[in-house]
Automatic annotation (TrEMBL):
<protein>
    <submittedName>
        <fullName>Tetratricopeptide (TPR) repeat protein</fullName>
    </submittedName>
</protein>
<feature type="repeat" description="TPR">
    <location>
        <begin position="559"/>
        <end position="592"/>
    </location>
</feature>
<keyword id="KW-0802">TPR repeat</keyword>
<dbReference type="InterPro" id="IPR011990">
    <property type="entry name" value="TPR-like_helical_dom_sf"/>
</dbReference>
<dbReference type="InterPro" id="IPR019734">
    <property type="entry name" value="TPR_rpt"/>
</dbReference>
<dbReference type="InterPro" id="IPR027417">
    <property type="entry name" value="P-loop_NTPase"/>
</dbReference>
<dbReference type="Pfam" id="PF13424">
    <property type="entry name" value="TPR_12"/>
</dbReference>
Length: 652
């Protein structure tokens, strides 16, 4: 066998699982990734990789969020991903059955973190890296276990020779061997030491070895019995000591960041620097191999480097200085999420940022796509920053950040993160006894519960939110809760109840002068009329909504309303008018890339063509709508499939 395991499952085993274990910095991840690249042709359906963050300073990746990412990577629509861990694990096993996949689970900290992520198909292979031996997994599933030790001395010397160059190494062979021993033969430590030599070409390797041996007296001891971190700390201390103070300070503060990686602008905010200055300092840290470049304008720290940076911050910087850095970071993210929210859901006026002053260099998003992409990239960080805000005395920022993420979560349906961030915010708001914060968090949680079909909890939370909005004197918030209650009852097909809440919402929101929100409530009332078969009332209502949307430039609302007007005309038997409105709505939905509305317009137009005796046009529209619904994982696809199975008939 030429790697961690065979790609063919032994008889009786559901899936081949290989675990690579060893001390930190020994090269487990490098081995797994290089081997995966080497055998990629043996896995025709691709590879899945995840860093489980088992030893990061922040919380490790949960099996639920990993499965969410895997299922999305395997083209499972967000709407089809169940909220519970057991259901996600079952769906994952079903989706990968029969597929030739390699799954790399990097940096695991426990068997419990891994077990839900295991497929049940012999066509798959799993490679796990961990500092833990994962004995329980070896016993329960017959896992192949591969333990990696530090490099043999000859290999350690060879690695040093490769980096510093053979001419320089041949000139000082004893110094090279000494450096290898001082680095404890750990690949990560050797890389750092050798790169330091490369950046100082005129310094003798013997002098570098002496410098390493004499660095920071607290960190001098090398010992085979030392833990994973102490084996590498002397080399890190040596590299750190030679940094310019500005770079050293930035490295220390990067260690305080709670997420898996960090963007240049966020790093700049943490250190109180201009982004251009921070970018230069980060480039220097990358060249020194103290941090790693992740994506464009993003960096990450190896877990040992992060722990070392945090330790240096605790030694060098005061408690107040560290707190101020975290507060600058939280404030930057708070205002960034508000800016993103304004692009993702303009006009709704959800953003709240009074917990923190405006940053000197705030995030700016030019359009919807830029805001959405940033939220996707920062998602794990945003969850972690909300937690840090609550833990460091910024409870108001914790709930406001969660509030500002509402539009992103509403669009992307990351249920686990949505609930986690709002629960953090709710706890913080409760500790502050802030009725406004509690109202917003309860409303946000309830909206998530609607999407998760946890209707009983949703209704309870909406009612509680309504009381807190009343206590805070927030009429807009109270009106939006009423509109959300209307929407919930629409989902439950309780149309008279939905109409009642929608009427109340319109009345309350109209007092606030927020026409955007008023249009939402009015639209809910129109949908309730449609559900009750009151098509003329729906028509009149949607005409008023259309007028409002056009007056305030709400193009998405205009597109949806045009389609609902088409449905109203259809219900009244006014087929030509229905087609006119549906075609207008379809064109606008396509301009806005609103695929749900596009599919609704197409499916409704198919019904109109069916009633007017045009079966070919009818089926063409239904098929186009079905293609979109299937792509989005919308349950309405099944009804369209049934309709398309019916024999062609003419109906007049």
């Amino acid at each position: 066998m030429d790697g961690p395991g065979s790609t063919t499952a032994p008889a009786g085993r559901a899936v081949v699982i290989s675990a690579i274990s060893g001390t930190a910095g020994v090269g487990k991840t490098t081995l797994a990734v290089m081997w995966a690249h080497h055998v990629r042709a043996k896995f025709p359906d691709g590879q899945l990789y995840v860093n489980l963050r088992g030893y990061d300073p922040g919380p490790p990746a949960t099996p639920g969020e990993v499965l969410d990412g895997f299922l999305r990577a395997l083209d499972v629509p967000a709407a089809n991903i169940p909220p519970s861990l057991d259901d996600r694990a079952a769906l994952f096993r079903s989706v990968v059955t029969g597929r030739g996949l390699l799954i790399v689970l990097d940096n695991a900290n426990s068997v419990a973190q891994i077990r839900p992520l295991l497929p049940g198909s012999s066509s798959c292979m799993v490679v796990v890296t961990s500092r833990d031996k994962l004995t329980g997994l070896a016993v329960s599933v017959g896992m192949h276990r591969i333990s990696i030790d530090r490099l043999p001395e000859a290999d350690a010397v060879a690695l040093l020779r490769t980096i510093v160059g053979p001419d320089r190494a041949d000139a000082e062979p004893a110094a090279v061997a000494h450096l290898a021993r001082l680095c404890d033969r750990l690949p990560l430590a050797i890389q750092i030491a050798a790169q330091r030599a490369v950046t100082r070409p005129h310094l003798a390797l013997g002098e570098l070895a002496a410098e390493l041996a004499d660095a920071d007296r607290r960190l001098e001891v090398f010992s085979l019995s030392a833990d994973q971190f102490t084996a590498i700390r002397p080399v890190l201390s040596w590299s750190y000591r030679h940094l310019p103070e500005a770079q050293a300070r930035l490295l220390r503060l990067l260690g305080l960041h709670p997420g898996p990686d960090i963007g240049t602008d966020a790093a700049a905010a943490t250190a109180g620097l201009a982004p251009a200055v921070a970018r230069q300092l980060l480039d220097g840290l990358v060249e020194a191999h103290l941090i790693e470049a992740a994506e464009v304008d993003r960096v990450q720290l190896h877990d040992l480097l992060r722990a070392y940076a945090r330790e240096c911050a605790e030694v060098t910087d005061t408690v107040e200085e560290r707190r101020e850095a975290l507060h600058r970071l939280v404030g930057w993210y708070l205002h960034a999420t508000a800016a993103a929210d304004r692009q993702l859901h303009p006009g709704r006026q959800r953003g709240v940022v009074d917990a923190s002053p405006i940053p000197e260099y705030p995030a700016v998003f030019g359009d919807f796509d830029a805001a959405l992409e940033w939220c996707e990239t920062e998602r794990a960080n945003l969850v972690a920053v909300a937690r840090v805000a609550a833990e460091t005395g910024l409870g108001a920022a914790a709930w406001q950040l969660a509030n500002n993420l509402w539009s992103f979560f509403y669009l992307r349906k990351y249920w686990t993160d949505w609930v986690a961030v709002h629960e953090t915010g709710l706890a913080a708001a409760r500790e502050l006894r802030d009725p406004k914060g509690q109202a917003r968090m309860l409303n946000g949680l309830a909206t998530a519960y609607v999407g998760m079909r946890r209707f009983a909890e949703s209704l309870d939370h909406f009612q509680a939110a309504r009381e807190f909005f009343r206590a805070a004197g927030d009429r807009w918030g109270e009106g939006m809760v009423l509109a959300n209650l209307a929407d919930t009852h629409l989902g439950l097909c309780r149309y008279p109840d939905a109409a009642g809440y929608a009427r109340q919402a319109v009345e309350v929101i109209r007092e606030t002068g927020n026409q955007y929100s008023e249009g939402i409530a009015m639209g809910n009332l129109g949908e309730a009329y449609l559900g009750m078969g009151a098509h003329y009332d729906a028509l009149c209502q949607f005409r008023r909504v259309l007028e409002l949307c056009r007056a305030i430039g709400h193009r998405h609302g205009e597109a949806v309303t045009l389609i609902h007007l088409g449905e109203s005309h259809l219900g009244l038997g006014e087929y030509e008018k229905a087609l006119d409105r549906l075609s207008e709505g379809l064109d606008l939905a396509r301009q806005l890339r609103d695929r749900h509305s596009e599919a609704l317009a197409l499916s409704t137009r198919g019904i109109v063509y069916h009633h007017t005796g045009q079966p070919d046009a009818s089926r063409q529209n239904w098929q186009a709508a079905l293609d979109i619904y299937e792509d989005l994982g919308d349950p309405r696809a099944e009804a369209l499939r049934d309709q398309l199975r019916q024999p062609r008939t003419r109906s007049g």
